[in-house]
Amino acid sequence: MGCATALALSERGAGEIVVLERAVPGAEASSAAAGILGAQLEAREAAEAELFRRARDGYRAWAERLRDETGIDVGYKRCGALDVAFDEIAAGALRERVAAQARAGLAAEVLDGRAARAVEPELSERAVLAAHFPDEAQVDPPALLRALVAAVARRPRVTVRSGVTVRGLAIEADRCVGVRLDGGDLRADATVLAAGSWSSLVPGVPRALPEVRPIRGQLVQLDERPPRVRAILFGDHGYVVPRGDGRVVCGSTMEDVGFRREVTAAGLASILAKALALVPSLGDAQVGPAWSSFRPHASAPLVGASPLPGLFLATGHHRNGILLARETGERVAEALLHS
Ligand SMILES: Cc1cc2nc3c(=O)[nH]c(=O)nc-3n(C[C@H](O)[C@H](O)[C@H](O)COP(=O)(O)OP(=O)(O)OC[C@H]3O[C@@H](n4cnc5c(N)ncnc54)[C@H](O)[C@@H]3O)c2cc1C
Taking 80 as the threshold, does the pLDDT of residue 46 lie above it? Predict the structure, then answer.
């Protein structure tokens, strides 16, 4: 969120911009994500659906621009997605969602098990029905973050400072005038809070803001040779994201355990059980790396102006921060430059 906002601000001709990161940009949730641009998989309300669709559909052009500017391919693919039901109760809910999305003009269809397996031949024989969303897409988050940081660092009048911890907001006369760093304040006309799951822990952040809490998610990568799975598959709160080159990212857990970073035996057992229920042939895949990170959960994403003059917000995106990165950067830049 910090880099996407810096890029959008720079493109609008903002003055000096400094991105402050205590580790390296992308060290936390953003590089750890599965990279699903799941506008239709994730949206639950009409207003959300329109925002998510716009965010997803704007990604191809953003990915191309980032590649042209940096030479880094962010792995954008419109691979489509199947949300899979294994029983009649789940099937009924999927039918309703597809009908609502089709009414809203989104590409969505209900497929029986056989038709779903024609779209994704590796899908389990046990699938009774699937919602097919052909426009859903993915990116490869570590590549996205490398490209984003490179694009930001190349812009004129933008500095990326790694290894710098923000100790608090600098507040004078009820206005945010910058941040407190070891060794002194960094003053700014405007400050953007983009500290992910740590946003509520930055001293000086207004108490009136909804709390941002970490929700741990674990992921494991499988390597199938040769690559077989083609579509993103969702089902029974698990998912499988094929990168197209044999890597298949399987997720995930949703755990309210504070900032504990463990990848746990129970977490992996549940992720692998759901992945194999979707794609039994993954049982032969080589197990690759497993990792975890923290989704910044708030009651809703916090984007734009805050109750504290001089402070703007780009945080709280929970499960959809990769999807919403570009849109958020644009919205925060607009709010900041027109304040
Ligand atoms: C397992 C998992 C799977 C996910 N899958 C998807 C997905 O498929 N699609 C999707 O759209 N989203 C997904 N997400 C969600 C997405 O990753 C997040 O919503 C998004 O990355 C949040 O971005 P952010 O910039 O707010 O937070 P982060 O990427 O966590 O960045 C916050 C940064 O702030 C820095 N920081 C914190 N405090 C300070 C301080 N005091 N001083 C200096 N720096 C500080 C941190 O070091 C960190 O680098 C997933 C998340 C997880 C955990």
Answer: no
